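Section 5.1 Outputs to date
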Amino acid sequence: MAYERDFEIRLRVFEPCVVHPEFADFPVSDNRDAIAGLVAADADIRLISIPPDPVADSYRGTPIFMPAADAGDEFDRVCPVQDDIRSWHALEALAENSTRGELDLIVPKAARRRAAAHRVEWMQDDPDTRVFTRTSAWDVSPVWWLALDPQRDQVISDDIGEGDEGFRIRIRTPILTASSRVDWALEVIKEKSKLVSVVESTEMFSEWLDGFDMNSILELDLGGMSEVLWPDTGAELVADWVDSLDADDREGAGAAFTRYTRMWEMLGLYARSS
């Protein structure tokens, strides 16, 4: 059994299969648990090897599906597994923010050379460079909550143990709804907030959402953090902050932001204790 990465939270975009002819011959099924186990087991092997190799292999031939019956409409949807592509992005960010000595300790030179070669091969095929999955650890980015509303969106709770031993929460919304929410929040934040980093993050998030087919579904999977984050996700505090800014209620905006920050700090303590 693979090491459990309960701290991982994933934001996925599922696009209609009709816009992905490369998956036309794949049998559509709810296969995410099987794929997650495969990817995690491979990661375990790479990370305990000597030297370790933290750069993931390609799993683009094993996509995650959302069957039409599961989505409640006529579209089968797919989310490509792109652990290698996301590893390349992470490696770039690490190289920009680490010294050469630190980088050599975290990602051995042999692994970096192999990743660079695989990336060149991938680029030669004129690839789709979009990234379909974003990952967070321990908590949900407040920018993600701008796209989601647990009070209005579809919330799916799956039992993951015997009896009442555990559950996993997924929140789904049409990507057009998510995009319109983020665009409205961005207008408010740009005009009335002084948090430049939040404005920049929201702009990049908006651009990311707009890059997908209009019939896509955005899904937040709280995974192993469901019991910690649900139902007090922080989404309501983020919405209160933006609504207060829009109403020029500086005091209310400050109070909502402070409450969210306090929640964030508590989750930070939870992460360090684990």
